[in-house]
Amino acid sequence: MRYGFLGPETTFTHQALLQALAEAPEDLRAGAELIPFTSVATATAALVGGDIDAITAPIENSVEGGVSGTLDVLASHDRITIVAEQIVPITFVLAAKRQMDLSEVRAVASHTHAQAQVQGWIRENLPGAAIEPASSTAAAARAIAESSEEEAEGLAAICSPLAAEHFGLQVLARGIEDTKGAQTRFVIVTRNSRIPARTGADKTTLVVHLPHNRSGALLEMLEQFSANGVNLSRIESRPIGDALGRYSFSIDAEGHLEDRRVASALRGLHRMCPQVIYLGSYPRADRQRSTVDVATADDSYDDASRWVGELSRMITPVP
Amino acid sequence: MRYGFLGPETTFTHQALLQALAEAPEDLRAGAELIPFTSVATATAALVGGDIDAITAPIENSVEGGVSGTLDVLASHDRITIVAEQIVPITFVLAAKRQMDLSEVRAVASHTHAQAQVQGWIRENLPGAAIEPASSTAAAARAIAESSEEEAEGLAAICSPLAAEHFGLQVLARGIEDTKGAQTRFVIVTRNSRIPARTGADKTTLVVHLPHNRSGALLEMLEQFSANGVNLSRIESRPIGDALGRYSFSIDAEGHLEDRRVASALRGLHRMCPQVIYLGSYPRADRQRSTVDVATADDSYDDASRWVGELSRMITPVP
Amino acid sequence: MRYGFLGPETTFTHQALLQALAEAPEDLRAGAELIPFTSVATATAALVGGDIDAITAPIENSVEGGVSGTLDVLASHDRITIVAEQIVPITFVLAAKRQMDLSEVRAVASHTHAQAQVQGWIRENLPGAAIEPASSTAAAARAIAESSEEEAEGLAAICSPLAAEHFGLQVLARGIEDTKGAQTRFVIVTRNSRIPARTGADKTTLVVHLPHNRSGALLEMLEQFSANGVNLSRIESRPIGDALGRYSFSIDAEGHLEDRRVASALRGLHRMCPQVIYLGSYPRADRQRSTVDVATADDSYDDASRWVGELSRMITPVP
Amino acid sequence: MRYGFLGPETTFTHQALLQALAEAPEDLRAGAELIPFTSVATATAALVGGDIDAITAPIENSVEGGVSGTLDVLASHDRITIVAEQIVPITFVLAAKRQMDLSEVRAVASHTHAQAQVQGWIRENLPGAAIEPASSTAAAARAIAESSEEEAEGLAAICSPLAAEHFGLQVLARGIEDTKGAQTRFVIVTRNSRIPARTGADKTTLVVHLPHNRSGALLEMLEQFSANGVNLSRIESRPIGDALGRYSFSIDAEGHLEDRRVASALRGLHRMCPQVIYLGSYPRADRQRSTVDVATADDSYDDASRWVGELSRMITPVP
């Protein structure tokens, strides 16, 4: 199996893919080949083209919100489905060639984006250190790893925990990000249009276009979920692109296509919306099972169908 | 075929049954036997017991509202269904043995209930006439019919148009009721649990019990209809009988069980309500076809089911 | 104060009025004159005309449902308001001139309506007793009370507990009704358009006409209540009288006009409905306080109004 | 008056500000000073700090969607309000020092972002031209303007129509963007917390946080608008930033704070939501008046308030 991810190596997306593989059955792990891509679009093209078997991409960030690039790419391809999700804490470490005291650190290298997220910590803990830009956090870590002992003297990199481990660096400090608790959610997407079986703690991802020029359409759309007792864990608007004020909605619903309540909500959406794109049903990363009201349990749907079916057999056929 | 009705002969219920037979196919009309009953309960018992094949009973009056007796009896029997409805205008005539001028009328006989509905007209048009009570409007008409010419001199009856015709009386004045436009709706009920095929202008009658102790249950119940684009033409509360404030609802919905939108609403009700009693789908008396939004047309339900069905085939079977 | 009630004396309505007076302040009780009327309509006319100060009438029965006569009369008069409610258990006693064993009872007198409600008990406990019709349960009780000892030998009346007490009879058996737990709710109505102050456990009664020819109007009407967190304890349809399928709704809502959430719901109804008749806010008979969500508490309404008021002061006046 | 805008000069934001000034009264135009800023955040800081009087910023793009930077900055400042909007078509021109035939163009300079949007047109119309990167479309235009006639020979810039005009270039081709019809909406924001008076064709912008852990909260929020007949022309989710799945919503509603229906919806939101940020009411760029149902017209709100006010005066004061 060939797995693409948004690279370079040791990004948080790489981390998400490693987490996913750690949970996967032995046969998916064995011989897995991990291939970095420079964008979600190129990775998706490779997936659709058959060059790789799955991709991992960020979909939602607790600080920045939905990852537009991923949402738009997924919505524009048929026959690819999300089969899993992974949540990765966004945390940084200070790492060096060898263990040293913070007072020994004279220069800190990293990507400007990462530096912005740790500047408070640096100011407080390394007030005298020089800041050296690098093309990526991975590059910063790798440069130190490849330096000689002397060159690396007093040098540290700000990078992901995975980068430190990957390049064999020693961690001087962990959790040095200024905003604690940030997380990014990643999805694993495959081509072969297989939907993992229901686990009871699942999520279903959709993109829904609303009917044009119809006041209250968003309300009606949401009522299809509430009438079936389906909770939403994420809803995000994305422009359709043809005019101001025209939006589609990217949605994560609690439950699996195998759940009657989810299937019923999908049917309702399909009836009322010009377009509904089903992106997959897959186990929730937190394994938390949904609480289902008796009125929207599978049995209730089955009983109701059976009842209406029996009534329907009483209809006199037209001669 | 033996047809029961709420008697005696020449009641408005009798009129409704005659209207229904006039519209029925020849084989249902030929040899029809019409049998008056003293109450809807006894007629229904005869129907359930197999003594008769159908009954006609009033269900809704434009002045008094739902006919509780009929609603409650229908809701308490299984395996009887409404197969047709008839609307009869509630109008009275002044009738006599022979044509005469109003100034010749010296006494007017009728049931007190009918007299109450024409008292304005009588005061204005027959100020000097004596009022004579009768046990029913039919009895008043029959008495005059059976009198000799001399006995009937100056006598008139207030009765239904049907009674005047049935007993061979001459109509002196029509439409003498003080409130114009009153109507009663009647239903024809059969035992054999057959539902007439859809005509495109149909009505479905239900009794629905709401979940106990659940604020907003009525709203949720109505949303099952609105989510499927089904209009209600009648909704009436009836006490369940076990405590104050506990109600069931008697409902006429536009559409037929064969309409996907009606079947879908019924399934929703069955899921959320402790009891749903289906009383039949039948042609509307006014033959007015429902306007159906494209989102709730049969095709939309079928397309949606097909789409979800195709998605479901992508689910990986559990090994 | 002169209090009218649906008579004759010792009816359950009489009982309701006595209960209400027992709870009333001393000055309302002192010198109270209780006057039976033969119908709610005549009592209401006397109230509106100023002959009496208040009336007591049944409004809802746990077995029969809403009392149409009372609902329709209340809805058709301005300037009368419900100021209190009373709930009376519908229960019957077997009473006689003196205590005796059931085996000594040879004849039972009552109104046919009451007999119908105790026939199971009579069949089981007094299989040999003769049934004697009376014009009312009160008349049956009074006749025994006014008989001589010999005449009353072996005679018993089926009547209300109040009638037995009122006419000085001895109770041979209590709670002899076949259906246990039936209750009737009564309202006390006054003319002077005073609304009792809020107690925190109140009810508000309304009659609402829905906009004509507007699908979903009932749903919209109910949403005015739910959007303000107001629960309904009773909703009943009544025909408007001008055509089949045209209904008004008689409603009991939890809360008082002084509650912001109730006032807000009333404003919403007034906007959307062709007619809203306010029939009063009054303490609940069961003294049960409503649970109010923080979003619909008075403070939330006041805060919201203050906030919008402050914003509105920022609007630039048109020069 | 000092007006800040997202620069540099000749950006589409600059264009929006010029459009706004063209519509403004003479006294606002006279002596207006236009000051470019490098980010919405710095411009907003200058506005809040009192250095400038208004800013112009992009808020929504028909292709990319909401402009997160602007939305987030506006939501995080008190006492600044949107007072106007402008819509600018996103269109590019090919411009040169002097008029020339397309076949004479040998090199085309622009910012890479603009080049991406016209690459189809360039491929087709200038297949042989060299592509020269510039730091901005303005810089590309300015460089040609400042070149000598000989230096500028065969050189053209891809820039906004405004840039061509501003730098005195000749337009060789208009509307050369590959995607036609793209538009960006801009807002003009002031500090002094003044809300322009209602014009009848207005828009109100809000940011709303939903109650936490409450299924159906989005539905309830939208119902506050629909219950008051207020349409939404834009709704966008933005992460609150503290956890995955926690969103606020940025909303444009049709109508003005002076409209009773908008004020009523705002009160409802304030009651149910932990935070509601009012960002202003202002004339719609398209001057299109909202259609208002009679039930949500100002008069209906006023009548309803008057009616409930009169009822409330009937409440007996607590002694």
Please characterize this protein's 3D structure.
4 copies of one chain form a homotetramer. In chain A, the strands form 3 sheets. In chain A, strands 1, 2, 3, 4, 5 and 11 form a 6-stranded mixed β-sheet that branches. In chain A, strands 8-7-9-6-10 form a 5-stranded mixed β-sheet, with helices on both faces. Chain A has a 4-stranded antiparallel β-sheet with strand order 13-14-12-15, sandwiched between helices. Chain A is built from 10 helices and 15 strands. With 319 residues, chain A is an alpha/beta fold. The first copy, chain A, has helices spanning 12-23, 26-29, 40-49, 68-75, 112-125, 137-146, 161-166, 217-226, 260-272, 298-312; strands at 2-6, 33-37, 54-61, 65-66, 81-89, 93-96, 107-110, 130-133, 155-159, 170-174, 183-190, 202-209, 232-239, 247-254, 275-283. Chain A is 32% helix and 29% strand. Chains in contact: A-B, A-D, B-C, C-D. The interface between A and B is large, with 37 and 37 residues.
In short:
4 copies of one chain form a homotetramer. With 319 residues, chain A is of the alpha/beta class. Chain A has helices spanning 12-23, 26-29, 40-49, 68-75, 112-125, 137-146, 161-166, 217-226, 260-272, 298-312, and strands at 2-6, 33-37, 54-61, 65-66, 81-89, 93-96, 107-110, 130-133, 155-159, 170-174, 183-190, 202-209, 232-239, 247-254, 275-283.
